[in-house]
Write a structure and sequence with these properties.
CATH architecture: 3-Layer(aba) Sandwich
Shape: globular
Helix content: 25-40%
CATH topology: Glutaredoxin
CATH class: Alpha Beta
Strand order of the largest sheet: 1-2
Number of domains: 1
Largest sheet: 2 strands, parallel
Structural class: alpha+beta
Number of helices: 4
Radius of gyration: 14 Å
Order of helices and strands: HEHEHEEH
CATH superfamily: Glutaredoxin
Length: 93
């Protein structure tokens, strides 16, 4: 999905992990090995707890109104449709 939507300036992809400073070299190595180039943050335990993340990956589409438009555990769960629905809601306003 990132490759499909990355050129759009109205969509932001962000990865979060609960690991903090001591794990940054491992996180960076993982991102490089997997080819992940979108923004990533670490030490996000409080945010992940608020979102009730229990497993990785957990994917969220959050609309411009700040509301969760879609949630799933894999892109094949309908991530593209969730992104398109969030964009349609924004454009309908």
């Amino acid at each position: 999905m990132y490759d499909k939507f990355r050129e759009r300036d109205d969509i932001i992809f962000l990865g979060l992990t609960f690991e903090d400073d001591p794990y940054v070299p491992y996180i960076e190595q993982f991102l490089e090995q997997t080819g992940i180039t979108w923004l990533n943050g670490y030490g996000a335990e409080a945010t992940l707890e608020r979102f009730k993340v229990k497993l990785f990956p957990t994917l969220y589409v959050i609309g411009t109104d700040g509301r969760i438009a879609w949630v799933g555990s894999a892109p094949t769960d309908g991530l593209e449709k969730g992104i398109e629905q969030a964009l349609a809601q924004r454009n309908a306003k």
